[in-house]
Every structure is written in C-alpha cells, then in structure tokens.
Amino acid sequence: MHTPRVAIIVTSFVSVATVLAGCGEGTPANAAASNYAPNYMPTEYDDDVKPVAASNEVSAPKHAPAPKAFPDSPDKAIEHVMHSVAKGEMHVAWDALPASYQADITDLVHTFASKVDRDIWNRSFVVLQKLHNVLETKKSLILAMPNLQQSPDFDLNVAKREWNNVIAPLKTIAYSEFSNVDTLKHVDMRQAIGTTGATIVMQFDGLNKVSKKNPANKLSNLGDAVATLVSRDGDTAVVRIEIPGEVTKDQDFVKVEGKWIPADLASDWTEDIAEAREKLAQMSTDKVAEKKPQIMAIFDALDHTFGLLNAATTPEEFEQVLQVGVMQVFGGMMALGKDG
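Predicted structure:
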C-alpha cells in the first residue's frame, strides 16, 4: 500500500506558494464571483444543460462527525481507517494522525494564508468558478466541438451521461473554504477535510464511471482491504496490508501519541515539517509584487476568454475561441517564467 504522506502533501502545498506568495489587500473571492458569466447567451445546443442538480449529485456533508475512539490493536486501527476512507469519511484519516501532527499541518496552512498575496490567491479561485460555469452552461457546445468529436477515445454517450460527475470536483474546490485567504487563515482542517475533502473523494468515485480502466478514485478499493497483525512489540508493529488490485506487503507501524501510524511517516515527520516551514519563511513578497501585474494580466485574459466562450453560439466558434484563449494564456505564462 502506498501510505498517504501528509507531510509531503503539505510540503507540495507550500511549494505552490513560492510562485503565488506575498502579502496584499483585495476583494474577497466570493464578491468577485458575483459577475458570473455576464455574456452568457442560450443557444440551440444548450437545451439539455440548464444548471440543475443531477440525480447522482453528491450531497456535501455540512459538518465532520465527532471523533470516535480507535481500536487499540494496530491491525484493527489501520483497517478502520482504510474502510472509513473508502466510504468517504475523510475525517477519520485526520483523526488517525497524532495531535501534534494535526497542529503542525494547521499551523502551516494558517501561516501560508497569512503570507500569500490575497488578490492573486482569491482571484485564482474566481477563475476556477468561472471555468466551472462555462463547463456547466456550455456542455453541449463543448461535447459537439469538431476536434473532440473526432477523437478516437471520445464517447459522446458516456460524456453526456457523466458530465456532472466530471465537473463536480472542480466546483467543490472552487467554492471551498480554501477559496478565500481570510477564511483560510482560520480554517479548521478537520472540518475542511471532513466536509470538502469527503465530498471530493465521493465525487471522484463518480468519475470512475467515466474511466473504469484508469479510475480517478482507487480509494473505493480500501473498502475490501484487510489488515493482519504479523507481529507486535510494545509500540511497534508489523501489519500485512492486502488491498484488491495492489501488491500485498508487510509494513512497519509505530504508536505515536496513542495513534498507529506508518513508521516511515513518523521518522520523516520532523524533517518534512521543518522543510515546509523553511519554504514558508522563504516566500518573497517583493518577488511576487514584481510579478503581480503579469499574473493579474493572465487572469484578465482568462476572464476575456470566458466571456467569449459564454457568448459562443456554435461548437466551431467555441472551439476557435478556446484555442486562441489557450495560446494567449500559455504565452503569458511562458513570459512570466522567463522573467524568473
């Protein structure tokens, strides 16, 4: 089993900040989002894409359930986590971490939010919101684009049927508690993982219907996972993990602050967290301030493209606008990279 490495995930999250970091003032994301799709025009292709909830749309949990005690036996505790995650109960994965690890992650996220440029961060999520709006309202134009229709891997019937599943995770992320710096500064990570995280996992489970050969969510396999205790010596143990479709392996676990966690996670935690904090400390507000006009110009270009896409009335027009818009944005990003 490939054990989730929370420290590496956090380090990767912080790495993004080296590009979009700094301090700034600006308009909250949700306020800017009120200008949603100002140029939208209905077309003959849009008769089946009114933004209504699909029958299989996942209902987001409003609150993470209260924590419950974990089994003392390492194999039972690990099996409990795997089975819970398979059901979308992501708060259990958070509860499986030692309290000090939870505090480390929360501190990193809050520190990141206090340093990142508000305008850039918030507007990036507005872009995601507008992208979702285009995908939702222009479904039929998108599916009728000539190049897409000619793709050998394109299945129109599957795409139509599963469209809401395809775009649902984007909407969840775009409107999540992570979309606004002011909210991010005080986000309750357990609640976020237990609500937004759980919703995304369940939505990715729906994506499996689109690509069964390459499932987006392999976590569902954890529902049939079996953990067997091989040996135990006090607060150390070896547990055999059997997951359908994965290679069976024996893994070392240790008990930290009353929680059984992978031994490699425990041994690397202090170093990984220190590295993440160092990256946060190195976030350059001056460098971001220098690049900010270029970054905001890219967002402006995206806004312009979204407006044209919303106004498109034929698949050919939509595809042409999309191609030009992608080239313009790609050019802006290339220029941003060349400037160091």
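Summary: The mean pLDDT is 81.
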